[in-house]
Amino acid sequence: MKAEVIVNKSYVIGKIDNRIYGSFLEHLGRAIYHGIYEPTHKTANEQGFREDVLELVKQLKVEAVRYPGGNFVSGYNWEDGTGDKSKRPRRMEHAWRSIETNEVGIDEFQEWAKQADTDIIMAVNLGTRGADDARNLVEYCNGTTDTYYVQKRKENGFEKPFSIKTWCLGNEMDGEWQIGSKTADEYGKLAKESAKMMKSVDPSIELVACGSSEFNMKTFGEWELTVLDHVYDYVDYISLHQYYGNVSDKTSDYLGRSVLMNDFIKSVSAICDAVKAKKHSKKTMNLSFDEWNVWFHSNNAKIDDWQIAPPLLEDVYNFEDALLVGCMLMTLQKNCDRVKIACLAQLVNVIAPIMTENNGKSWAQTIFYPFFFASNYGRGVSLQSIVKSDSYQTSDGYTVPYLESSVIYNEEKGEITVYAVNRNLEEEMSLELFLQGFDSAKLVEHKELYCDNLKSVNTSDEQPVAPKDVEISKSVGENHKVSLKKHSFNMLRFSL
Length: 496
Ligand code: AHR
Description:
By secondary structure, this protein is α/β, with parallel strands linked by helices. It has helices at 51-59, 106-115, 131-142, 148-155, 184-201, 222-231, 251-255, 257-278, 319-334, 368-377, and strands at residues 2-15, 22-24, 64-67, 91-93, 98-100, 119-124, 166-169, 206-209, 237-244, 286-294, 339-345, 354-356, 362-364, 381-389, 391-393, 399-401, 403-410, 415-422, 429-436, 442-449, 468-469, 479-484, 488-495. It is 24% helix and 27% strand. A nine-stranded mixed sheet has the order 21-20-23-18-17-14-1-19-22, with helices on one face. An eight-stranded parallel β-barrel has the order 2-3-6-7-8-9-10-11, surrounded by six helices. A hairpin with a 5-residue loop joins strand 12 and strand 13. The radius of gyration is 22 Å and the shape is globular.
């Protein structure tokens, strides 16, 4: 099978906002406790953070981490996670029916974020709480005035503000499962008032309003229109969330799910632009895809309620999941003109690229690798490609090209990176690349993620799904030819 990708140096989609390589850590299962924080672990540092996990997180170059939830945030009292640890309350945590010890809160998390070399995207509780607590939290984190919450932060040992730039106005407020879920009108009003008060405390912050919990929500579209009508002038982004799963075990359908993700992004952009037109606004609303991933393997796990850090949502990812995650990352890169923030949900243990054993090993799941390559090399501008590839039909009627690809030009580093997934399950693909305007392009690296068995998984002992170097032709010039194995993820790097 043959395919072609044609790009031109002058045809740019947009500059990639590095926050599209973001992730998410929620007080859920073993993400925080036994994930990033385990004072009894042999690699634990002075603050109780696992250095082995920090090392893996740093390899991923995660630009920003959304915290503390997720569904968790909608019942959370942020004050519980501040100050003297010995006085912090143990709470019934109703989103995941667990016990929250509050050993970690924003006081500790901001320290972890520094050590992980990442920014925080902070979410406020608009489920059981509201504008008042949201503005107090902004004051606690970012305030510099001689006032109550700034004093509290200083008393707790933090003279300098945490300077958190990006804030989410609640989480999935359209979902029936959400603590304190709301109608679009109720949420829109509350989000607007919270935004006004939060920006009054710190006008430099950026805000994300909740969009739909997924494309298939019954209220999708209406929700965005109503919420944006309320908040358009007060927020900077609207969120999208989406998870996919190979529930019917049809791999070709499954690998095509990134086409639906693309439709979702285009649909939300169109809705934002409709509201912009209606309001005669000059402002373009951008998108925060702040939860995305594969999530289905752990759906039927039975875990008892009211445990501390139970093993919830521990999907063990296989090779085909990594292929879809790779396609989803390319979809985000190709929509970088509108998607400015994206969070792989989540980061450790809970539907995550990094897994740990309690007081034991940590390792990279299969989905670690496409994120690693996208985040480490996919910075710069995303180029508009003309793709010539045969397509197939999914059983639910979507047309999916066999080739998924994206091309990133990093002028500063003098590099072009091409990402490519061959979705063909039977045949190798001969790919011709036409890099117009890059006549000195020299192929320097071809990394491949391939496994014959699509269901192979990585464990603490064995890592059958790991990248390999492919021998390269060392071709120089605008035109290059490479071969992509059947069902493989590839990264091709060119120096200029
Ligand atoms: O990431 C797991 C959960 O998925 C989050 O808590 C919630 O926002 C979403 O439904």
